[in-house]
């Protein structure tokens, strides 16, 4: 039974989908830069080699399944394929694969030397691509290919393994043509994003994590097994997909490439596959408990176990709803259904390290504060917690400043006191969840509204000097 569907995807800009995907501004910045880089490389490579040159976006950006980096300072990934066109075999070209990659590497270095291009660095060549990074938060990988247009055949240039059969266009066409219904196609893309973010959060070692294309194929094929006439909300469908994928991998870990059944997309070790299956069953349990919850707020707290600070609370998506009385009434009724047995009481203190005179206090709330304040949260009635109780503090950031830095929040700790910092303007929140033996028995949200700039360091008056 769907209880938190609108928190996954709705008109609000604070849904799970919005919190895990690039903002409109970030998408526009990426688009402008890859367009410019593509034009530069096509012109430069044609001049350098004389071959007709074309480009093809591929990977998550092309599939529209790109997710945010987990932390500030990490980067979005874009794949821009560069194609050298000639008829005939791969070895008929004027350069070997390493030679083509060297041409691209040198071109990227020249591109980065132009300060107007906002490039922060060019990395050493990788086995299957060259990489250029851009301010503030993304990089573009440039794999290069031989394209025989007459045979519609492609081969990837590698650093040490020669030419490698590879056709990124074919798998994109497969994905795009799975569903004629635009609504289902959009839902599939969202579901892939949910799965990718879950994997990034719960499998920290990237080498032990399924690749993006592996997860994409698993989710796409699982969705085809679900009767969407029976259930169509994202939370219900996600639960079904988790179970289908977990059952599939329990039977066989192979994930065949849908356009080349001889290729196994799942290249994880046996140990990594065992870990993936275990994590999937945990994900399945989370989904079942969340979808069985009797209130949206409780469901959101349970989904937070899987998606951490990226998952919104009902208060986060109520911006549009609060505009009308009927919606406010529905929200109030929903919240009234939650009967928690423990009522957390939180003392909040915000203070400026630069000016000892600036200090704000509150109990279960805090007045608007300035940037660059330290904020201390204390559960003052912790001694009243029942046996077996535990707590979880979660920061959820909102607003342009935080999202531009990809700082959507974080898990703040599990003690009775935590400290934070007001780094961004915006309406943020600290959420405390109280558990007993794994069951939610209480919750409290503290709204943290930050406005204005940080206080300047206090200047002490000069000492007065007296003549004797």
Automatic annotation (TrEMBL):
NCBIfam families: cGAS (NF041078)
One BP term from GO: nucleotide metabolic process
Annotated Adenylyl/Guanylyl and SMODS C-terminal sensor domain residues: 343-451
The organism's taxonomic lineage, starting at the top: Bacteria, Pseudomonadati, Pseudomonadota, Alphaproteobacteria, Sphingomonadales
Keyword ATP-binding: yes
Keywords assigned: Antiviral defense, ATP-binding, GTP-binding, Magnesium, Metal-binding, Nucleotide metabolism, Nucleotide-binding, Nucleotidyltransferase, Transferase
Stated name of the protein: Cyclic GMP-AMP synthase
Domain Cyclic GMP-AMP synthase DncV-like nucleotidyltransferase: 55-145
Swiss-Prot/TrEMBL catalytic activity: GTP + ATP = 3',3'-cGAMP + 2 diphosphate
């Amino acid at each position: 039974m769907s209880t938190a569907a609108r928190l996954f995807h709705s008109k609000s800009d604070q849904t799970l989908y919005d919190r895990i995907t690039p903002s409109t501004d970030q998408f526009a910045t990426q688009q402008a830069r890859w367009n410019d880089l593509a034009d530069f490389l096509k012109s430069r490579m044609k001049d350098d080699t004389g071959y007709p040159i074309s480009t093809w976006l591929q990977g998550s950006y092309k599939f529209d399944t790109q997710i945010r980096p987990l932390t500030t300072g990490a980067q979005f990934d874009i794949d821009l394929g560069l194609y050298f066109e000639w008829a005939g075999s791969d070895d008929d070209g004027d350069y070997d694969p390493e030679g083509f990659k060297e041409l691209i590497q040198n071109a990227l270095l020249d591109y980065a030397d132009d300060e107007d291009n906002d490039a922060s660095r060019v990395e050493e060549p990788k086995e299957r691509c060259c990489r250029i990074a851009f301010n503030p938060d993304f990089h573009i990988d440039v794999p290069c290919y031989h394209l025989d247009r007459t045979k519609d055949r492609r081969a990837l240039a590698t650093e040490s393994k020669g030419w490698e059969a590879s056709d990124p266009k074919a798998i994109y066409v497969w994905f795009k043509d799975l569903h004629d219904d635009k609504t289902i196609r959009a839902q599939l893309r969202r579901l892939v994003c949910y799965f990718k973010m879950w994997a990034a959060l719960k499998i920290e070692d990237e080498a032990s994590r399924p690749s993006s294309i592996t997860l994409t194929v698993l989710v796409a094929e699982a969705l085809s097994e679900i009767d969407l006439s029976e259930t169509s909300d994202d939370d219900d469908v996600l639960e079904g997909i988790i179970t289908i994928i977990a059952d599939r991998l329990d039977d066989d870990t192979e994930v065949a490439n849908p356009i080349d059944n001889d290729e196994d997309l799942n290249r994880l070790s046996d140990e990594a596959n065992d870990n993936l299956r275990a994590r999937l069953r945990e994900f399945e349990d989370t989904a079942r408990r969340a979808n069985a919850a009797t209130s949206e707020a409780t469901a959101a707290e349970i989904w937070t176990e899987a998606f951490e600070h990226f998952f919104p609370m009902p208060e986060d998506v109520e911006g549009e709803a609060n505009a009308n009385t009927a919606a406010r009434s529905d929200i109030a009724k929903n919240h009234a259904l939650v009967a928690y047995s423990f009522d957390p009481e939180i003392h909040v203190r915000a203070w400026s390290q630069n000016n000892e005179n600036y200090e704000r206090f509150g109990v279960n709330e805090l007045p608007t504060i300035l940037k660059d304040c330290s904020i201390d949260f204390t559960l003052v009635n912790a001694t009243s917690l029942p046996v077996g109780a535990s707590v979880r503090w979660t920061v959820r950031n909102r607003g342009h400043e935080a999202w531009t830095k990809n700082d959507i929040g974080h898990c703040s700790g599990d003690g009775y006191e935590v400290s934070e910092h007001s780094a961004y303007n915006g309406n943020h929140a600290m959420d405390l969840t109280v558990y007993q033996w794994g069951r939610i028995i209480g919750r409290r949200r503290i709204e943290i509204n930050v406005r204005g700039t940080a206080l300047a360091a206090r200047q002490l008056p000069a000492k007065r000097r007296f003549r004797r």
